[in-house]
Amino acid sequence: MTGRLGKMYGLRLLAEPGVQRVAVTLVLALVLLFRVGQLAFFTTQIQWGYDFSAYWQAGAHLLAGEPIYAPDQLSGPYAPQRQYLYLYPPPLAAAVAPLSALFPTDYRLANWAWFGLGVLIVAWVVLAVGWREGLFESGLGARFGGLLEGRRRWLLVAGTFALPPVIGELALGNVHLLLLGLLGLAWLGVRRGTAGGERIAGIAVGVAAVIKVFPGLLLLWFLATRRWTAAAWTLLAAAVICLVALPLTGLDPWRDYPTVLANLSAPSDTRDTLAPTVWLTPFLGFTGARVVVTAAGIAALLWAAWRRDERTSYAVAVCASLLIAPALYHHYLAILVLPFVLALSSWVAPVAIVAAYFLLWGGQQDALGDLSWVVNRGLPTAGVLVLFGGLLLARPSPSRHSV
User: Fold this and answer.
1) Cα gap 359→333, rounded to integer Å
2) Distance between CA atoms of residues 83 and 276, nearest Å
3) Among the residues of 193-270, which ranges form H helices?
4) Which whole number is the average pLDDT over 72-96?
């Protein structure tokens, strides 16, 4: 009788899968309630659509036949930190132009449509990639106490929306959830193992690279893994997107964009910057740091492509593409949703996944004064690096779950 009571009461109950599910569900419900309150608050603040305002205004300028890049972007070095500053290739402005036309006076209204698209993309990536990788089956789900099996897959969706970078990205309206969807689609194409799947993967990465340059690093992963069809379709898709957008963009923005990229300098305010390039700039200078970080990211990508299974190496490539970006902020880390899902379905140490997840919860802590950078910058940067390191050190996946 005593033995039975010992199993039924006390901390031992936490070892029971049923109790674990109840506890996780309760905690996630409370966190999501808090996140909903955060979002409601952000809709009344400058954060709502802050980044989206740049795309909305660029689309409006295209429709009016005006320049989409600011004069100071063309005249000399500039810091990538202010509202309405458009930093991307012209096709994104052309894609957002319909929203600029529908909401010509208020980008904040247009951001609701962008918000809805982001919510759908996050849920789709988690469910589609998780299902394709067998994450909700009993074999892999057992690694996590059965928390992810069957209908409990919604716990993973809830945990994703509890992640602060996802909430930040939804509020600010940047492009990283769109990139998340495209990179997730690319992986699903690769996972098919067919020429048609490679075409899908190449098109998705090509579109992502036209939206924002850094996903173009996935082209190197295609080449390193000998996916020649995907690599060719990446280049073809990028070229076609540019040509299709040309009637609306015209040639002038394309003449300006190389100068816009060349003049991009280090952020003037580094309080929110997570980029390894910025961390190293005081020691190596901005250009030197950028070269070192880019070389390290490419080396890690190639090593993983040659030494790790394709699922893990693809996740490494996505992380590397993000880490080499010279401008990297907390909400950009929403792209890590895809590497997290792939890590869960690979043989990455669970402790690395859990640690990385919670390290990303850093944020503004003004009460810490001069030490606020530890929480604001240090913890999220550590979270990315822990996930990145966990993927690099992962054991090869068993044949049952290998690509």
Assistant:
1) 12
2) 23
3) 195-211, 218-224, 228-249, 252-263
4) 90
